[in-house]
Amino acid sequence: MAKADSLTRMDWILAATAALGQGGVDSVRVEALARALKTSKGSFYWHFKDRPGLLEAVLALWETEGTSDVIAMAANLATPEERLVAVLEEAVRLDLRGIDVAGVEGALRGWAAQDPAIAERIRIVDARRVSYLTEELGRIGQEPGMARRRAEALYLALLGFYGASRYGSATADVAALRDFLDLAMAPP
Predict the structure, then answer these.
(1) Which of 41, 82, 162, 177 could make an SS bond with 77 (beta carbons 3.0 to 4.6 A apart)?
(2) H helix runs in the chain, sequence order
(3) Residue 18: inside a domain, yes or no?
């Protein structure tokens, strides 16, 4: 982490994202983050107007790094199968910049259950992710309805993987998820 006198906006966003993943949205508190970052609340207000601004930045980071960047990373791979494998491998990497991805995914969905505006944001990202999977499965040659159902099943399996990863369940097995991807890509 950066020295307290040189903290960046991104330092605050990452600290807030980590706090979200560890304890949910209620744990994203300016004072607690300032203590964790060994700085004053004044540093926070240099970068953000208020806590909602920080939470918006956390959501934007999640949307970008957890969806847009993952899709872009796979875009230049030659086949839909290669792209799907790469996206899955990136999605199951549970540590991103030192942050527990499974914890963040779960916390965001917990927050969405309490806040209709956040629920809508999560639904939009979920729809984008499923659409991407559907398009790639369609490029393999699956008919649209089948591609959609398999994309939804694969995405739900990934969300289950995240949930099981949070408490160290043996069912959070990357190899099993990869096998499920192979089944999703198989001809009907």
Answers:
(1) 82
(2) 9-23, 30-37, 41-47, 51-63, 69-74, 80-91, 101-114, 116-140, 144-165, 174-185
(3) no
Report the amino acid identity of residue 188. Answer: P
> Residues 98-139: pLDDT tens digits?
899 999 999 999 999 999 999 999 999 999 999 999 999 999
Beta bridge partners of 99: 96
Rounded (10°) CA dihedral 88, 157, 106, 131: 60
Residue 170 in domain:
yes
Query: For 101, how many CA atoms within 13 A lie in the half-sphere containing its CB?
Result: 19
The CATH number of whichever domain residue 143 belongs to comes to: 1.10.357
Cβ(6)–Cβ(86) under 8 Å?
Answer: no
In a domain, 102, yes or no: yes
Q: Across residues 22-27, what is the average pLDDT?
A: 96
